[in-house]
Structure formats: C-alpha cells, structure tokens
Amino acid sequence: MKCPGATRTVLLTVLILFSAAAAASWNNPYPAADAEKNILYSAFRERPKTFDPARAYSSNEYQFIAQIYEPPFQYHYLKRPYTLVPLTATTVPVPVYLDKQGHRLPRNAPVARIAYSVYEIHIRPGIYFQPHPAFARDAAGKLLYHALGPGDLTTINAIGDFTQTGTREVTAADYVYEIKRLAHPKLHSPIQSLMNDYIVGLREYADTLKKAYDAIAGGREEGVYLDLAQYPLAGVEEVDRYTYRVKIKGKYPQFLYWMAMPFFAPMAPEADHFFSQPGMAEKNLTLDWYPVGSGAYMLTINNPNRQMVLERNPNYHEELYPAEGEPGDAPAGLLADTGKRLPFIDKVVFSLEKESIPYWNKFLQGYYDRSAVLAESFDQAIRFTGEGDTEVSDAMKQKGIQLLTSVQTSTYYLGFNMLDPLVGGYTERARKLRQAISVAIDFEEQISIFDNGRGIAAQGPLAPGIFGFREGRAGVNPYVYDWVDGKPQRKSVEYARRLLAEAGYPGGVDPATGRPLMINFETPATGPERKAQLDWMRKQLQKLDIQLVIRATDYNRFQEKMRKGDAQLYDWGWNADYPDPENFLFLLYGPNKKVGHDGENASNYDNPEFNRLFERMKNMDNTSERQAIIDQMVDIARRDAPWVWGVHPKQFILQHDWLFNTKPGQMANNTLKYTRLDPKKRAAQRAAWNRPVIWPLAVALAVFVAGAVPAVVSYRRRESGRRR
Amino acid sequence: MIAYIIRRLLYAIPILIGVNLLTFALFFFVNSPDDMARVHLGGKRVTPEAIEKWKEDRGYNKPLLYNAAGDSGAKLTDTIFFKHSLRLFALEFGRSDNGRNIGYDIRQRMWPSLAIALPIFIVGILVHITFAMLLAFFRGSYLDTAGVVLCVVMMSVSALFYVIGGQYLVSMLLRLVPVSGYDVGMDAVKFLALPVLVGVVSGIGASTRLYRTLFLEEIGKDYVRTARAKGLSELRVLFRHVLKNAMIPIPTGVVVVIPLLFTGSLIMESFFGIPGLGSYTIDAINSQDFAIVRAMVFLGSVLYILGLILTDITYTLVDPRVRLS
Asked: What's the CA gap between B146 and B153, in Å, rounded?
C-alpha cells in the first residue's frame, strides 16, 4: 500500500511528538539540564522590601538574608526548647555585670545593683566574606571598584556584571561596624529605638551621625558615604582582631537573642562604601538588594520581579550538622547526617509565585520541594485519623509526600480595651463580664471550622516552646476551662451566663438602659472571605444575648483606633522575636500601653502587681524562681482577662520524600544549610508524574475537522445555490 | 494633521495635572504619611521618632498642597504634591518609597507584560474576527445560533475560571506546558503559550459578538448586495468588502488599548508568574508606596491619551473620508 507524502508527514510528526512526550516533561518550568542537579526549588510571594541586615525585620526578608548574613549566635537546629549556640563566635558569652562605678559584680548580683552588662564576643578566625566585587583588588592591592567614575557603570546593571571579585577575613571590626549602622540616619533600623535604651551611647551616637551625615552630604541625596569607623560608639568596642565588646545598660539577658538576628551580623565597610558610590542607586545596586555576607549561601541572582537565586558560598567556613537533638529526632532520621559539613544543597531557586493555586499545582508535580497546606487544598492533602490526629491523605501518601507539624511561637487573641468604661477596668463586675465572654467564645470550634484544626486553644499569653509555658493540668486556665478526663474542657455557656448575671447583666441586658449589651468589635479583617468568621464571632456572643457590632476597617484605621484607645474588643496577634517569656508578657506590661506610650500593649492593661512581677521577671535567668513568678503573672492575667486567650497556630509543612532533615522551627531562620535532597530520586519522580498526554489534542483536532466538514459542505451548497 | 496632534498633546497637559491631583488626593485621603511610614517601617516596634525620621527623609513631612509657613513661591512648591508629583512631567519617576528606582523597574517589567499582551492582542483579533466572520456567514442558521449561545456562555464566565481551568486542563491533566513561570528569549515560549491561549479564548465571547454585530450591520448594505450581484463568492464579499468597511468602528476599541499593553494584566500576570507591570501597581497600593502608584497612574494616563490620539489617526487611515483638523 502506498503512503501519500502528506499523510506520511503527518504520521511522522505524530510519531515524533509521541516520542518526545515519552522522553521529556514539557511542563517542567526549569531548564532540563538542571533536572538532576542539587538544587532546591522554592518560591516567594511578594518582593522583599530590603536585604539590609540593619533594616530587614520581616519573615519574607529573613527567608533570604538569614542564609547570607551570620550573626555571632544561632539557635540549635534540633534542640527544644530553643537553645542559643555559637555560629561565628567561639562561645555564647556570659555577661560581666558592673555597678555604676564600673566595679565588677558577682553573677548573682541583684538586678538593682547592675548598672551595666558587658558582653565580650570572640569570633572564630578564618571566616571569610563571600566573593564580591567590593573586595576585588588590583595587583597593587588597591580596591578595584571603589573609585568608579561616571562612565564606569554604563555596562553594569547587576552585581554579576562586575568581572572581578575578592574576599577578606571577617573581623571583629565588621561586627562593630554593623552595630554602628543601627544608628545610621538614613537606615531607619526598626530596632534602633529599642537598642537606644540598652546599648550605651547609641542614642547620642545617632545624633552625632546625623550631624556628620548632613555635613558630608551637603544636600546631596545620593553618593554619600559616612565612614562609621571615624566615629566611635561608647558602648561598642573592638578589643582585638577577633574580639569585640558590647556594653549595655542594666541587665538584659534577652540581648543575646537579639545578637542571634541579622541586625548583629558583620558588615564589611568596603561593601557599604562600594554601594554608596554615585550612580549605584540609580541601577538599584544597593545593600538593600545585594547582601554581602559570610553565610552558607550568597545571593547570585536578584530579580525580585521574577527570581532570586542563592548559591553555595565557596568561602563558607566549616560548620557540621549537629550531633544531638530531641529524643524523637534520631528515629525521625534527623541525626543521619551528623558530623557532615554544611550546607548540603548547592543552589536554591526562589521563583515569584503570587498565587497559591499555581504553587500548589507545581508542588504536586514535583517542581517545588515543600509547600504549606492551603485552605483550599486542605481536604485534598490532609485527613483526620480516628484519634483526631492529622496525616496526609492517601493521594499524598502515594506520592510520598510527608506532613510535618509544629505549634508556632505566636498567639492570636481577642483583646479588651481596659480603658473602656464597659469592658475595661479592674472591678469585679468588669472582670466577670470579660471572663463570661472568654468562656462563650469557643476557640476550639473556631480552630475546627476555620483553621482545619491547625492550632491549639491558648490558655494564657505564653506560646508552647517558650520558657514558662506549662503543659497539662498545670497549664490550664481555670477561669475558662475545667480539667475533665485528663484534658481541658471549656466551661459551659450556663456558667458564662451566671458570670454575666453576677457582673450585673442578667440575660445580657444592661440594667442602665434595659437593652441588650452591645459591644463593638474592631477588626482589620475585611473582605468576603472573612465574613463567615465574623458571623461566627457574632454568634458566640449571642450565646450570652450580647450584641456584637462588627467594625471591620483597613489596617491603618484599625491601628489608629488602637493608638487612640477607641475600641472595646479587637483582634490581633503576636509572633515572638525570641524564645523568652518577656517577649510575650511585655504585651500586657502597663508602661508599654498603646495609648499614650505607643507601645505594644494594645489592651492598655495596667495591673500594678503584674507590672511589678514583670519588672522582676524580665531580667532573670531561666530558673525555677522565674517560673514561679511567671506562673503568678499568668494567673493574674487570666483572672483579669484583658484578652480572650485565642489560638496558637500550628504550622503544617508538606514535603516530598526526596527532602531530608526538615525540622519545623519558629526561631531559627538560617535553616537551608541543614536541608539535604536526593536530586536523582526527584528527577525520576518528576519524569514519572509529568509525561505529557497528547491524545486529547488529536481528539480535539478530529472534532474540529468533523465540525468543519459540514460547514464546508454547507458553504459549498450555499454558493452553488446562489449561482443557480 | 500635525497641528491636530500638537493640539491634542497640549490638551493632555491639564488632563495629566488633573489626574495627578486626583491620584494624590485619593491616595492621601486614605493614607496619611504616618500610615505610609508605619507600613514601610514594619508592624513592630515603630516609634513616633522613627516615623518622623522616615517622613523627613522622603519629604513627607511637608504640607500636602499648601505650605502656609513658606515664602511666597514656596507656599506651593514646598509641598508634598509639588515635590513628588510634578517631576513626572519630565518622565522622572524617582524612587519608590523603599528606595528602588521606579524607571528602572518599569523598564524591566514592561517587556514581560508586552510578551504576554502583544500575542494575546494580535492572535486574539485574528481569531475573534475569524469567528465573527464565520457566524456572520452562517447567519440565521443553527450554527450561528449555537455560536451566539456559546459566546454568551463564554462571556459570562469569569476570567479567573479560564485561568485556573486552563492551568488545570493544560498543565495538570495534559502536562503540556508549565503551570506558571517566566523566562527570557525562546525559553519564554513554553511559559507564554498557556497565558496567550487563555487570553485569546477568554476574549472570544465578547469580541466575537461585537464583531459579528458590526459585520451583520455591513452585510445588509447596498454595496454588499452589489458585490454579490457581480457574482463574487460570499467569502470574497466578506473578506474583501465587509471586513474593510467594518474596520472603521473596530479601531475605537482596538487601537486605544495598544499603548496600554505595556501596563499588563493583573490576573494573568499574578497566576502565571509573569513579572510584568500588571501587578506592580496593585503591589504598590498594598504596600502603600505612593511613589509607584503615582508613577503608574501617570504612565497609564499618558498611554491612554496616546492611544486616543492613535485611534484618531487610525480613523484617517481606514476611512479616507475622515480628516483631522
């Protein structure tokens, strides 16, 4: 049988298409050549604002810079409760306490006598900055790119366009330089005001720098370099090449936690000077966008509109995978890489993925290695066991997807404005009203309905994993829960109604007006997706016949109302900066009130006994004495009920089985270096999951042709009819 | 015609000042400089001193429109409006409130926007006109009725449905192209295929109905009857005569959008991960970056005015009876 030329061509094309389909994944968003490379694929949802370690303070910024900048300390990757360990320092220092005259005090000196604490930090020699043009030198040893003229940047659009790079050893002076940058007049470091209260001389230093900057700038807005080395800071001192000292006011043990954040990572003055040159900012070449660190990774592609790429820092110092962790870590395989050199992964590609649905789809195809559990895909991904635990669904199990969960060191709560004449105040009437509302709002139900079980009902201000948090019966809030059959059970609505009646509002009626109590609820939750939750809130108070008036507004207006104390009930949340109870309990500390003080105590709660205990507790080491004080404070707060203790959210992470060493944690951000992956397994799985399906195209073509034939026939019939 | 264009360009100046003023007023009615500072400085530990310093650095510590404390001219010039908005007329977009060069970002992001918008525009016009012609040809038949019903159904479906459905069908079930992403050069083709397909298909309903109506209006005219009487085939009548004359109203809707192709599409770019200008403005509004908002609104206005001028010029090209004066 003869095969006509056209038919042969079509058959050949189809054959080629099918063979190509069998050979490759057409939907692979990455270059085929990278399929078996040791690359982790992740995403970012919104463009980070800055990568400058003196300014960055949000999680989407830390996702990147925590891998690049290395502060002297870090959190142990596996141990819980969170433990500080040295990163670039040789040890975690024990502060030296001094009195007002500068005399050394014993370790157990009373807090009142301690005028200063001095931290002396020894850093490890042999740590080098990443390769960077800011360090490039010519044959004579002169910095190559530090005197750029107007034409030198013509062909430069990204940092990779500089042909030469260099490096140098990290020294104590670089740490001192970065601390000084916290007071730089143009940087607006978010922790400057806090550090002004602690680092000796920082407040005055900011004034000095402002004057110096204005004098140097002379009205110029760009190309101004302020050499901070010329301006000494009283509280920070370089002792020798590898040692520096920080002197802070009073006793402030939490200072060490701050020193585990990128705010205190080393900054090379060369890098600062390099980016300060005229013309750099015009091309977005600034420290805001091009970090220069000594960490495990360096940012090699920075296109915040599309993709960011971290690559292994070839100069990274020796750091080994930890050898100890929690009891369950070894069985979970988290100690399998003990003693191996970090990092494991060569490159991390972050792609801009603004919408969650494409992200989820690509995760299922194997093109992202990890994913959070989205609300819209929850039922597809997770199922509840008979015991109420969660596990991945059968479909996910078949793909080898694993679920990792952990309770976050965060709290979401409903707050009462303690300045409000109805719900505020410290009378028994007001307390009982707040307690009644606390009982009526069933957060277990909210977690079940709206959060798919991703959270635990809070018993007080402290989140799990924080010193002072108590598990089990000892940790239950007795004003809202009973301990029944070994677990907390929310008190009944009848009990809440009784409390309400004792508060002077029987049946939820205000005797002064004879009408039902009406409480305004301020919330920044706007939009149709939150309506159901707000309706649910209304129903919770209806249990007590109290009318809840929802006053949803944008976040700016919401904050303004909070600052003015123009609220009765509101909802808000807090993510811990560091794992210390002070970082939660200060949200209820009187002098930290929102109204008049612009602090973080949005409820304006001001109980003198609580304040007194807070002042004692905040500077204590984690001892049983501190635990006892915290217990007292928590009990006072529970009784006063300035918050309806809400929810500590649970983090759900899904990951493919080619990924290893993932341990969810809330404090450490520099965790990429511990992650290991099996790229060969991933490539095989991706190929198996993503074979193109072509036959529907052929069917569609056939349908099109089948539809076209009658149309052509009809056309011809019409034409011939017209001719006749 | 040149005089006409110059006149129209001069008319544009007060319009642009008005747009600028409106953007400024709307933005600052909703957000005070204090709000902007709070958003930029982050949610935690923001002190009043830090807010004041942030505003001072960016010139937001001045009065909005009128500086009563200033000297004569400075009463108007030493204001936020003057300092931040009027430089736009020299196409100096300045820096975003978090320090990035806006002009640089616009130049970077307009190409991906164009890469997706231009094929949708061109392929879309060809496909939509062809479908409309087919329906016009089979007017009054079951095919026409079925086509119109299908168009109504298609135009009733949300654009988001096309995007999510397209991703599910083409990328998840058939696995023919990536779900989302972007690359440059020829590698961009695999990323652009699906958004272009979705863009074209989602526009079929509305555009086909519009063009069909225009064609049917023309088909009933005398010159068409004359063409048929000459013995021309129906296809020739439609493509040589009807299409040419139906083109006159088409530029109204088509040419005006050409300059706006630069500004991209929010939904398409967000869902397909295209790093274009579509999401730039929305991101700026969310992060309360007034510098970007004013620059993008200004750019959008300039492009719209250009589009209108281009439309006028196109009229003279497609209809020799039209003269610009």
From this structure: 11
- Cβ A235 vs Cβ A200: under 8 Å: yes
Provide the CATH number for the domain formed by A410-651 in this structure. 3.10.105.10
Q: What is the pLDDT of residue B65?
A: 83
Q: What share of chain A is helix, strand, coil (3-state, %, to 5)?
A: 35, 20, 45
- A69 token code pair: 């900048």
Residue A256 CA from chain centroid, whole number: 19
Q: How far apart are CA A669 and CA A63, in angstroms?
A: 6
How much of chain B, in percent, has pLDDT values that exceed 90?
A: 27
Q: How confident is the model at residue A18 (pLDDT cuts 50, 70, 90)?
A: low
Question: CA B292, CA B283: separation in Å to the nearest integer?
Answer: 9
Please, is A128 exposed, middle or buried when counting C-beta atoms within 10 Å of its C-beta (0-12, 13-18, 19+)? middle
User: With contact defined as beta carbons under 8 Å apart, do A90 and A124 qualify?
Assistant: yes
Rounded to a whole number, what is the distance in Å from the CA of A241 to chain B's nearest CA?
Answer: 34
Is A721 in a helix, a strand, or coil? helix
CA distances for A616 relative to A112, A315, A610, B6, B214, angstroms: 10, 45, 10, 76, 82
**CA A536 to chain centroid:** 29
How far does Cα A103 stand from its chain's mean position?
Answer: 41
* Tokens coding B128: 């939509």
In this predicted structure, the answer to whether residue A1 has a pLDDT above a threshold of 50 is no
- Do the beta carbons of residue A496 and residue A503 sit within 8 Å? no
| Closest chain A residue to B34, measured at CA | A556
In the predicted model, what is the mean pLDDT of residues B24-34?
84
Residues 6+ apart with CB under 8 A from A263: A53, A54, A71, A178, A182, A189, A191
Specify the higher pLDDT residue, A171 or B277: A171
pLDDT in tens, A303-338: 888 899 999 999 999 999 999 999 999 999 999 999
The alpha-carbon gap from A352 to the nearest alpha carbon of chain B, in Å, equals 6
Q: What pLDDT does A720 receive?
A: 79
CATH architecture designation of domain A70-280: Alpha-Beta Complex (3.90)
Alpha-carbon B230 to chain mean position: 44
> What sections of chain B are H helices per DSSP?
2-30, 33-41, 48-58, 74-77, 80-85, 102-137, 142-156, 159-166, 188-219, 222-229, 234-236, 243-246, 250-254, 266-272, 278-286, 290-318
Question: What local confidence, expressed as pLDDT, does residue A543 receive?
Answer: 95
Condensed to tens digits (0 to 9), the pLDDT of residues B45-63 reads 778 888 888 888 888 888 8
C-alpha to C-alpha distance for B42 and A60, rounded to whole angstroms: 12
In 3D space, the residue among A281, A230, A275 whose CA is nearest the CA of residue A135 turns out to be: A275
Q: Looking at chain A from residue 346 to 385, which residues have their Cβ under 8 Å from any Cβ of chain B?
A: 351-355, 357-358, 361-362, 364-365, 367
Q: How far is B296 from chain A (nearest CA, A)?
A: 16
Lowest mean pLDDT among A203-212, A670-679, A686-695, B104-113: B104-113
Where exactly are the structural domains of chain A?
70-280, 410-651, 694-724
pLDDT in tens, A497-517: 999 999 999 999 988 888 999
pLDDT at position B137: 87
Minimal Cβ distance to B164: which of A28, A289, A357: A357
Q: In 3D, which of A30, A41, A46 has the Cα closest to residue A352?
A: A46
Which domains does chain B show, CATH number per domain? 2-90 (no CATH), 102-318 (1.10.3720.10)
Give B-chain residues touching A194 at CB under 8 angstroms: 45
> Where in A442-541 does DSSP place strands (E)?
455-457, 481-484, 487-490, 509-510, 515-516, 518-523
> Over pLDDT 90: what percentage of chain A?
75
pLDDT exceeds cutoff 90 at B168: yes
Cβ–Cβ under 8 Å, residues A641 and A479: yes
Q: Is residue A8 predicted with pLDDT exceeding 80?
A: no
